[in-house]
Amino acid sequence: MKKPFILFDFDGVIADSFQLAFEVSKMIYPNITEDALCRLFEGNINNKENWQDSCMAECRHDIDFDAEYIPRMKNEVKIVPGIKEVIIELEKDYTLIIVSSTITSPIQEFLEKHGLANHFTQIMGNDVHTSKVEKIKMVFDKFGAEPKDCVFITDTLGDMREAEHTGVEAIGVTWGFHKPETLLIGKPFRLVDKPADLLGAVADYFKFKNST
User: Fold this and answer.
1) Residue 99 banded pLDDT, cuts 50, 70, 90
2) Do 30 and 91 have their domain in common?
3) Domain match, 12 and 32 both
4) Does 195 lie in the same domain as 151?
5) Of 29, 61, 102, 165, which is the most exposed, with the fewest CB atoms less than 10 Å away?
6) Which of 39, 37, 45 is nearest to 9 (CA)?
7) 3-class SS at 123?
């Protein structure tokens, strides 16, 4: 029997990366605030029209986000405490795939550093496609999966909205970029406050899907 699929967001869920993302964003957009950065994740972070609102007159067009972020990510971004053990446990019963807006190679390096690379069947970063809608559709096509076979674990409303376009529901985590009240707008199956709670939430989700 084919294992169900768990689609994992990376930043905020597995990697504690908000502070670095904010610092690099502020290099490019000096007037941006933490709240303004978080609002950008209420949609697709790659939507440049949204970024223009934060740019104003002082935008540094000469600074590339990835060029600044990725080298620092290797040394400054820590793994979320407790998530490694949960990933190892989940991989026993589910096919794990990362669907992220960070490019694939540094995600691969991060997972290798923490002994998790072999637990993910695929990593789909921003270089695969800038739309998570399209990346989820790629999962459907490659693995013969349907929306009911998948759940998206994420810390942002924007991810929930993109997943909704594909018929995939989400479980929200409250230790990442968005606060619970923002995540609830996306009508997740459940919000969890610590990584260990994902085990029960995922099991309950697929139990519910199989009963409907």
Assistant:
1) very high
2) no
3) no
4) yes
5) 61
6) 45
7) strand
